[in-house]
Automatic annotation (TrEMBL):
InterPro entries: CblAdoTrfase-like, CblAdoTrfase-like_sf, PduO-typ. It is an enzyme of class 2 (transferase). This is Corrinoid adenosyltransferase. GO terms for molecular function: ATP binding; corrinoid adenosyltransferase activity. Belongs to the Cob(I)alamin adenosyltransferase family. It catalyses: 2 cob(II)yrinate a,c diamide + reduced [electron-transfer flavoprotein] + 2 ATP = 2 adenosylcob(III)yrinate a,c-diamide + 2 triphosphate + oxidized [electron-transfer flavoprotein] + 3 H(+); 2 cob(II)alamin + reduced [electron-transfer flavoprotein] + 2 ATP = 2 adenosylcob(III)alamin + 2 triphosphate + oxidized [electron-transfer flavoprotein] + 3 H(+). It holds the Pfam family Cob_adeno_trans.
Length: 190
């Protein structure tokens, strides 16, 4: 159980923060930037939920919980030392990505195939989901960059990759199942 009885600690005033294993690093470290971007993504999902109802809201709620799991995973380096932690270390698992894939497959059944690229526009929910997609892509790029320097759970990278696909398909669903998608017209303003 998490207990937050004091929000400010003053331990980060010099530009450092603690990782999940207690190590102190610069706040601009790639690992911190990666999980900070996952936190930003979670906030954009919360904004999308302002426009979502029913099943879409339920699915976005699941994603928000997954994103906290992902942040917990990314904030703890040294996966090979997980057994030394003295408690179960939270890591992303392939089942979370498999759930996204199942949801994508179900949504795609409701859509006509695309014959053009689409603009991030249309309904308020669709536009917000496109914003989620772009923030997810940035979080993925940062996590992949981190993986070139330190060990990263492969399930975390795969989840982020699939999540941006999920947001793309969900944005089409939010545009009247693709019927209100705004198509890109190449060179339209030349």
């Amino acid at each position: 159980m998490v207990v937050l009885n004091k929000i400010y600690t003053k331990t980060g005033d010099a530009g450092e923060t603690a990782l999940g294993n207690g190590a102190r690093v610069a706040k601009h470290a790639v690992r911190v930037t990666a999980y900070g971007t996952v936190d930003e993504l979670n906030a954009t999902v919360g904004m999308a939920r302002l426009h979502a109802e029913g099943d879409m809201d339920r699915l976005l709620s699941l994603i928000q919980n997954d994103l906290f799991d992902l942040g917990a995973d990314l904030c703890r380096p040294d996966m090979e030392k997980d057994s030394e932690a003295g408690y179960p270390v939270l890591r992303m698992v392939t089942a979370q990505t498999a759930r996204l894939e199942t949801e994508i497959d179900e949504m795609i059944k409701r859509l006509e195939p695309l014959r053009s690229f689409i603009l991030p526009a249309g309904s308020a929910l669709s536009t917000q989901l496109h914003l989620c997609r772009t923030v997810a892509r940035r979080a993925e790029r940062l996590t992949v960059e981190l993986a070139t320097m330190e060990s990263v759970n492969e399930a975390a990278v795969t989840y982020l990759n699939r999540l941006s696909d999920w947001f793309f398909v969900a944005a089409r669903i939010a545009n009247d199942e693709g019927r209100s998608d705004v198509l890109w017209v190449p060179g339209a303003n030349r």
